[in-house]
Amino acid sequence: MGHVFYSTSETPESDIGNTPAQGFDAAVEFGERDLDLVNALQISPRAPWSLIGASLGIDATTAARRWQHLTDAGLAWTTAYAPEFATVGYVRLRCRPDTVAEVSARSSTYGCVFAVDRTSGRYDLQLSVAAESPAALDDFRVRWLAEHPGIEEARLAVAVHQYSDGSHWRPRALDPTQEALLTEGDERAPGAPRRRRGDRELVLALGADARRSAVELAADTGLSDATVRRRISEMSRSGRLIFRCDFAQQAAGWRVNTNLRARIPATDLDALGAALPEWPEIRLCVVTADDDSNVLLIAWLRTPQEPIALESRLLHHFPTLRITERSYTLSALKRMGRLLDPRSGIAVGHIPLDVWS
After folding, report:
1. 287 DSSP β-pair partners
2. pLDDT at 188
3. What is the CA radius of gyration of the chain?
4. Are 44 and 183 contacting, i.e. CB atoms less than 8 angstroms apart?
5. DSSP structure class, residue 276
6. Cα separation of 254 and 266, whole Å?
7. 344/311 Cα distance (integer angstroms)
């Protein structure tokens, strides 16, 4: 089980996913400039404030101060993860009605469970799990899921190939000129996966805050400042280290999450995977090993009517696609290690994303 870090001093573990964040004003919303700032940090999460500010037409101090306000309020945060270390599985759980809250809370405390959603439909919960290996993923299923008496059914789909995830998604708040300023000189470089001493510690340290300084990271990992800078550069440029900037989606206007499972012929998968990351609604497009589906899609939408239009577009553009299951996320309790207030979506705590837990 991971260590829990709360943004308030009196948020009990037993209340994860059940109690609104203290002092939260349900009417709070992102301003347009807040989304601009988030978008800039999504593009270049560790850029100096001088560059972030220049892209937004503000000075570095103002940019840093606005970001501090968003993070203090739990409205936005940065994180990092290393996909090469993980085998990802999506677990759907059907629970006894009187145990849904308990299973939700307990699931949220595990470091290997990076997302927890309470959903509509046949299943009460969807867990996103990152384990060190397929055997470790199976161990999680057998060791924890099987022992909880409130779980009546557990269904595991293993991620086989990912076309896009939340690290690729953008609110599209910036214009091309602003984006170009943030991506100048940002080139991917090939790099063979090579696990070294300190990599795990570095990934865990960045998971709490992707903008931590090299000095802070060096103190946590036992590596030198220069080694930290070099490894971050090498791992991020080769795609071995992924940064992302997330935010409270409800406060920013994306109030509907829809989860679609579908089947499409293997010969059409790459066409689907090439197209959907460009659709503004799609947050996740992943090929899965499941029973009656081979694709999982997660979309962020603004109104309850939009999922119908999204399905229509999908079927129009991909005639061989068949949707086998659909559900709404009723409450998001955890995302990439951040514990979320289910009503507001703001971050109220953090459990390090640890595939080794």
Report:
1. 161, 295
2. 60
3. 20
4. yes
5. G
6. 32
7. 27
CB 24 within 8 A of CB 341: yes
| Residue 285 pLDDT > 80 | yes
Q: β-strands 282-289, 295-301: how paired?
A: antiparallel
- Count CB neighbours of 48 within 10 A: 12
Handedness of CA 165, 355, 157, 346 (dihedral sign): negative
For the CA atoms of 189, 194, 198, 202, the dihedral, rounded to the nearest 10 degrees, stands at 40
Closest to 42 in 3D by CA, of 32, 33, 52: 52
CA 177 to chain CA mean position, Å? 27
CA distance 63 to 178: 15
Mean pLDDT of the chain: 89
What is the 3-state secondary structure of 121-180? CCCCEEEEEEECCHHHHHHHHHHCHHHCCCEEEEEEEEEEEEEECCCCCCCCCCCHHHHH
Is residue 259 a contact partner of residue 296, using CB atoms and an 8 Å limit? yes
CA distance 314 to 321: 8
3-state secondary structure of 275: helix
CB 277 within 8 A of CB 271: no
pTM given for the model: 0.89
Which tens digits make up the pLDDT trace of 132-157?
A: 999 999 999 888 877 788 999 999 99
Q: 131: burial class by Cβ within 10 Å (0-12, 13-18, 19+)?
A: buried
Indicate if the alpha-carbon torsion angle 197, 161, 309, 340 is positive or negative.
Answer: negative
Rounded to whole angstroms, how far apart are CA atoms 352 and 152?
28
E-assigned strands of the chain? 5-6, 76-81, 87-95, 113-119, 125-131, 151-164, 242-247, 256-263, 282-289, 295-301, 322-335, 338-340, 347-350
Residue 177, judged by CB atoms within 10 A of its CB (0-12, 13-18, 19+), counts as exposed
Nearest-CA neighbor of 338 among 78, 29, 8, 64?
78
